[in-house]
Amino acid sequence: MHENSDSVVDVGNWVNLTGFEPGAEEEKIYIVDDAAAQPAELKVGKSSPLAQALLGKQVGDEFSFQTPAGNVQLTVTATGQP
């Protein structure tokens, strides 16, 4: 666990992201253990490419992520414990 778990993305956190689609609202996802992953409910397994890209990021961090539709620039806007 990180020292400042309220602002650093870790397993068990929810994460708000912007950037999946231009002008779209934030997406809220949950990073969970792989056995609890349910993509339809936006619960992403910790071994997934998106979770791996997010772990350790902080609120305000921007990063590139490759989706099936192409590369997107995502921003972490909030994170916390459920």
TrEMBL record:
Domain of life: Bacteria
InterPro entries for the chain: GreA/GreB_C_sf, Tscrpt_elong_fac_GreA/B_C, Tscrpt_elong_fac_GreA/B_fam
Organism: Symmachiella dynata
Domain Transcription elongation factor GreA/GreB C-terminal: 6-78
Protein name, UniProt field: Transcription elongation factor GreA
Gene Ontology molecular function: DNA binding; RNA polymerase binding; translation elongation factor activity
GO biological process, one term: regulation of DNA-templated transcription elongation
Keywords, sorted A to Z: Elongation factor, Protein biosynthesis
